Amino acid sequence: MAVIEGQSRPIQRLQLADSWRRAWRSGDWWRQLVLLAFLFFMFLPFIITFIISFKDIPQFDHAPFRVTFPLHPVNYVDAWRIVSRYIYNSLIASSASVIGMVILAAIAAWAFARYPFPGREIFFFGVLALLMVPGELTLIPAFLLVKTLGLLNTRWVLIAPYIAGGQVFAIFILRQFFEALPGEMFEAARIDGANEWQVFRHIGIPLSQSILGVVAIMHVLSTWNDIIWPLVTLSSDKLMTLTIGLYAFRTAYYTIWGPLMAGYVIASIPLIILFAFTSRLFVEGLSSGAIKM
């Protein structure tokens, strides 16, 4: 096995060199250079964050963007000690809200796509109109609503609004997908005696797993990185999410940059793991023709 791997490496180098020669002769080399430059600048913030995460305060003040020695991996220990409980709170809020959002949005989108009722298009365009309303405009009314309901400083103050707010875009995407499915399958199931719920559960949901995954991933990203709503509605340290917990490394006079950047790296790990395991599902959902703007 080692001999085969050793022989394959020179072949790969020759293939890479041959591809560069073909690009140079065809005049496409500048496009590849531009793409490489865009790729470098896209990853540059992550590289800088990773470099700073190993610095102490004097090293950051002296050379903030260069690698300095000695490295301080203890920053990750300090960051984990503070942000671990906040990661737990963010996991609860994101996972609970994404489950509720996907279930309710799928049912509503199915009704808009496959169940004719009076005023269906009017209601659907009313839902679409909510996409044009910025979240900052509804911040105060939403706060007064959860205050009246007695949800402040509870987990439900995050979960319930996330479920409600995430449904609008999800309903739009899922309705487009359900409408594109061939109706003959559903009619055949109804002829065989299946009711509407059975058609939805056994045919509609299995066929829409890819787009449901896209909607779920986008919702998790938005809730995981949200800072305004938790900052407004939570004052208990036991319930605060990760985006607020990272402020523990900031004071009125200075910022502890090393542990702060280590906290950012730790905060990105769950999202990297999520996308690593669901990337195939995400690409399938985007390439299935479900998103039709």
Keywords:
293 residues; single chain; MetI-like fold; mainly alpha
Explain this structure:
- The chain folds into two domains: 2-52, no CATH class; 75-287, Orthogonal Bundle (MetI-like fold).
- It is built from 13 helices and no strands.
- Residues 1-7 and 289-293 have low confidence and may be disordered.
- Helix 4 packs across helix 10, helix 4 (74-114) packs parallel to helix 13 and helix 10 packs antiparallel against helix 13 (257-287).
- With 293 residues, the protein is mainly α.
Superfamily at the CATH H level of the largest domain? MetI-like
Radius of gyration: 25 Å
**Which structural category fits the helices and strands?**
mainly alpha
What CATH architecture of the largest domain would you give?
A: Orthogonal Bundle
**Residue runs with pLDDT of under 50 for 5 or more positions:** 1-7, 289-293
Please write the CATH class name of the largest domain: Mainly Alpha
Biggest sheet statistics: none
Domain tally: 2
Q: DSSP helix count?
A: 13
Order of helices and strands: HHHHHHHHHHHHH
Please give a quick description of this structure:
The chain is mainly alpha-helical.
Helix-strand layout with pairing:
Elements: H1 2-26, H2 29-52, H3 57-62, H4 74-114, H5 120-129, H6 139-148, H7 156-180, H8 183-191, H9 196-207, H10 209-224, H11 228-233, H12 242-245, H13 257-287
Helix pairs in contact: 4-7, 4-10, 4-13, 7-10, 10-13
